[in-house]
Design a protein that fits this description.
alpha/beta
Length: about 290
């Protein structure tokens, strides 16, 4: 039984996501994700004017007269939402937790998908695979996905993106559009990302909280690593301490950006203290520019 508090949040997210899809992202999703190409439909007899490159030579030889393969555009997609549920995702210093923002983004992407008759699946991971929901269509299925993304209680604490991507490759047969939603506080996932992005269209959705970028000037402050439990106490009244913290955060982001560029993975950068609408629109505009005219 899902607690009433969670159901209330699911309903709120549902309303907001539906508004985003209908009023903001209308046409954007469909124009960018057009399907996986051409799908075989049938073999039919050759007619004058047909493209000879489509002739099926095996059937032609067997029948004694020319036949060709007929293809149709394959519109239906499978969208996989791969969500980081490690301990660091349960942090938020301003408006909402990173995990809550991840669930809201899942809702927007999932409703965009089912509006275009695409399937949606879910993988929740930490340093292990926590939950897998196979891809399906329909509003009820999407509400189930949102509920799990919002309320699931994981067993693991740390982040292993490589484990998630390897599992994605095992449970999917066909190419998918995969949104990898995480704060990317992980290491050693580049090889798995390269392999997965050859099979799938991987899009990294990075979630960041402002306190991960800079420290406030509030005197002595206790900091704890959410995934390892390691604690330190720092004096934020010292400018050097704040500067070094900010510099370290900048270097980590630059390192992540270089990795994503080197693996040809697009990124949608969102923050817990600001609207994500512009980030989504920026991504869709970037993708549209790449489409063949």
């Amino acid at each position: 039984m899902i607690p009433e508090e969670i159901l209330k949040k699911v309903r709120q997210i549902h309303i907001h996501a539906r508004h985003m899809v209908n009023d903001v992202l209308t046409g954007q999703y469909e124009s960018v994700f057009k399907g996986q190409g051409m799908e075989f439909e049938e073999v039919r007899e050759y007619q004058p004017g047909d493209d000879i490159r489509s002739i099926d030579w095996n059937v032609t030889a067997r029948m004694g007269r020319p036949f060709l393969k007929k293809f149709v555009e394959e519109r239906e997609l499978t969208v996989m939402l791969v969500i980081d549920a490690s301990c660091s995702s349960r942090f938020g210093s301003v408006k909402q937790l990173k995990s809550e923002l991840a669930a809201e983004l899942c809702a927007v992407l999932a409703f965009s998908a089912i509006k275009n008759n695409d399937k949606v699946g879910l993988i929740i991971f930490t340093d292990q695979i926590e939950k897998y929901i196979p891809p399906k269509k329909g509003r009820r299925h999407v509400l189930h996905v949102i509920s799990e993304a919002l309320s699931f209680e994981p067993q693991g604490h740390r982040t292993d993106i490589g484990v998630a991507l390897e599992y994605l490759n095992r449970v999917t047969i066909r190419r998918t559009v995969t949104f990898l939603i995480s704060d990317f506080m992980a290491s050693d996932y580049e090889p798995a990302l390269r392999v997965a992005n050859k099979r799938h269209d991987i899009i990294a959705v990075t979630i960041t909280d402002p306190r991960e970028l800079a420290l406030p000037k509030v005197g002595m402050l206790a900091l704890q690593d959410a995934e390892t439990g390691e604690k330190i106490v720092v004096d934020t009244s010292i400018r050097r301490v704040r500067t070094e913290y900010k510099q370290h955060a900048r270097e980590k982001i630059e390192e992540r950006q270089r990795l994503l560029r080197s693996t040809n993975v697009d990124a949608i950068d969102v923050f817990t203290d600001r609207p994500y609408t512009e980030s989504l629109m920026k991504f869709f505009r970037l993708r549209e520019k790449r489409l063949p005219s």
